[in-house]
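job 3f2a | input accepted
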Amino acid sequence: MSLNIFNIWESIGRKIPFAVRRTHWANKSIYVIVDRVEPDGKGYGKAYGIPTENGGFCSYWQTDKKWKESRLIPNNGVYGWEYVEGVTLEINANLTKAKLETKEIKKPINSIYDVETTIGFGKYRNFEVCDVIDINPNYLIWAIQNIDKFKLSEKAINELSKKIILKDSIIQINNRK
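job 3f2a | predicted structure (177 res):
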């Protein structure tokens, strides 16, 4: 059963910090450390926290300006969250909760995606090409075939070919773009 962050907070005895994640997030190693809850008395309110991946800071919030600036977790009242047990509830000590450094998002140049380029669409939105190569290389093949303005750089093609066998037709489609 899906819950919202406030239901989870109530069910664990209003203890802070605690970890949650959206039930639909593909990468199950990403979770949010909730460190402040302001209930409104009606089962909702405001919840603040920091996205993490395996206990380290995660740049998952880069594209959400409000979350990045205020740490207000988006969709915190939506019934699509789950409690995460047995994870680290502290981020590296050298990071302050008030101001966290974020990694610069590298955008494609002339629709050419290099290994460090961040994908701005679809299932792997906000993931770098190198991460998608590791997670699901077939997604990049699908993107080459189906998205007009998606072309991998030579370096990215070489990295992809180390992970999966690329048909000549895929390389030809990529090179024609």
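job 3f2a | The chain has two domains: 5-84, 112-176.
job 3f2a | closed
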